[in-house]
Structure formats: structure tokens, C-alpha cells
Design a protein that fits this description.
CATH class: Alpha Beta
Strand order of the largest sheet: 1-5-4-3-2
CATH topology: YaeB-like fold
Number of helices: 2
Shape: globular
Structural class: alpha+beta
CATH architecture: 2-Layer Sandwich
Order of helices and strands: EHHEEEE
């Protein structure tokens, strides 16, 4: 099993997304669902690191989809899965930085 490590940027984007959905929905219910699904995806890629789709134009970077709206971008470094970004699909894709 691989270890999961979030970059500062990925963690910040993840927390911003959770906060956005709490404020948008006036409830933490959806954000709790996101947290649960992200945890499940972390476990999945920790056990199956090559299961994520490869990013076409960025060698070594993969992603998995969470709740059909979010993407977790990661790369494999030795026995570590490094989470590079947590992307909310509602944002402009041109703003994505890895």
C-alpha cells in the first residue's frame, strides 16, 4: 500500500471547495459527502496507484474522479502518492495548475 501525501496547494484547494459548498448549500451535508468520497478515493489509489487516468500532456500525472464533479490529480513517487491538486469541475479549466 502506498502512502498518501497532499501538497499544500492541493490541501488548500480541497478546503476551499468544502467551504464553498458549505456556504453555497447553507449546510455541511454535501461537504461531508465529498470528504467521505475523497477518503475512499485515497484508499483506492493507495492500493491501486496506476488506476487513475493519465493526464494527456503532463507525463507522470494521473487523476481520479470524485462525485462526477471533482478531480484529484496525483503522481507516484517511490511508495508515495503525492496529491497535486483537488479540482472543482465548476471552475474554469484554464485556471488549473499542477
Amino acid at each position: 500500500m502506498f502512502e498518501i501525501e497532499w501538497t499544500e496547494k492541493a490541501e488548500r484547494l480541497y478546503l476551499e471547495a468544502l467551504e464553498f459548498w458549505i456556504n453555497h448549500n447553507k449546510s455541511a451535508t454535501y461537504s461531508k459527502k465529498i470528504v467521505k468520497q475523497v477518503s475512499e478515493k485515497e484508499n483506492y489509489i493507495a492500493n491501486n496507484p496506476y488506476a487513475g487516468q493519465e493526464v494527456f500532456d503532463i507525463p507522470g500525472v494521473r487523476y481520479v474522479v470524485v462525485l462526477r464533479k471533482f478531480l484529484i490529480f496525483y503522481r507516484i513517487k517511490n511508495k508515495t502518492i503525492q496529491i497535486l491538486s483537488f479540482w472543482d469541475g465548476h471552475k474554469n479549466p484554464q485556471d488549473l495548475e499542477l
